[in-house]
Specification:
- Residues 102-206 form the DM13 domain.
- The structure is a single chain.
- This protein is α+β, with helices and mostly antiparallel strands and 206 residues long.
- The protein is built from 3 helices and 10 strands.
- Helices cover 27% and strands 31% of the residues.
- Strands 2, 5, 6, 7, 9 and 10 form a 6-stranded antiparallel sheet that branches. Strands 1-3-4-8 form a 4-stranded antiparallel sheet, with no helix packed on it.
- A hairpin with a 5-residue loop joins strand 3 and strand 4 (127-136).
- It has helices spanning 3-25, 41-51, 70-90, and strands spanning 97-103, 105-106, 113-121, 127-136, 142-150, 153-154, 161-165, 173-177, 187-193, 198-204.
- It has 2 domains: 31-39 and 96-204, Sandwich (Immunoglobulin-like), CATH 2.60.40; 43-90, no CATH class.
Length: 206
């Protein structure tokens, strides 16, 4: 094999190694910030905004009673709509219920974590894991697990449930919890680095 071919092969290998190294190391120096609303809050805010969005102008072909002006008719329509909105808002909705919660701690001096983790049951019966005031050392391909606690230590094993990729290493965020998962067992939220198989932070739930 000629020297130019060997050099080209070495150069290509170096490029690949550098690219992989950059992918693995660069997240340590960049924060990914998210700020998700509590499930349902954004929808409620949009509904309220729509209800308060303004007046109710009459269409061009609308008939106005002889003893009323167009402005009076529009005012009555607006008042009636406001009463309907108030009745809807007064209907009792199921409040989210906190089932279990915990606080994050870092795995070691390099991998730090803080904030709270709470599993809520929503009005429709679904469950969601909510991370608040959350911050963890960033890293490559971090995932959120609900893992069993064995002898006081969270374990990423066959019984651990992967809730998906971490959305951001800083900020409030939500993750759906599978319906069949037994929350009466001792569990912990684990921020887990897939490539290195390393725990970054944990929050034991109780």
């Amino acid at each position: 094999m000629s020297k130019p071919v060997i050099r080209a092969g070495i150069a290509a290998a170096v490029v690949v190694v550098l690219a992989v190294a950059f992918w693995l190391i660069s997240p340590y120096f960049v924060d990914e910030v998210v700020d998700e609303a509590f499930p349902g809050e954004d929808t409620a805010a949009e509904t309220g905004a729509d209800a308060d969005s303004g007046a109710f102008p009459l269409s061009d072909g609308a008939v106005v009673p002889d003893d009323m002006t167009q402005e009076e008719v529009e005012a009555e329509m607006e008042a009636a709509a406001a009463e309907d909105v108030e009745e809807v808002e007064d209907m009792p909705d199921g409040e989210p219920t906190a089932i279990v919660r915990g606080s994050f701690v870092g795995a070691d001096s390099v991998h730090q974590g803080s904030g709270s983790a709470t599993v809520y049951e929503l009005a429709d019966g679904s469950r969601v894991l909510r991370l608040e005031d959350f911050e963890v050392t960033n890293g490559p391909d971090l995932h959120v697990y609900l893992a069993p606690v064995v002898d006081g230590t969270p374990q990423i094993n066959a019984d651990a449930v992967d809730l998906g990729s971490l959305k951001g290493n800083v900020g409030n965020q939500n993750y759906d919890v599978p319906d069949g998962l037994d929350l009466s067992q001792e569990l912990a939220v684990v921020i887990w680095c897939q490539p290195f198989q390393v725990t970054f932070a944990t929050a034991v739930l109780g």
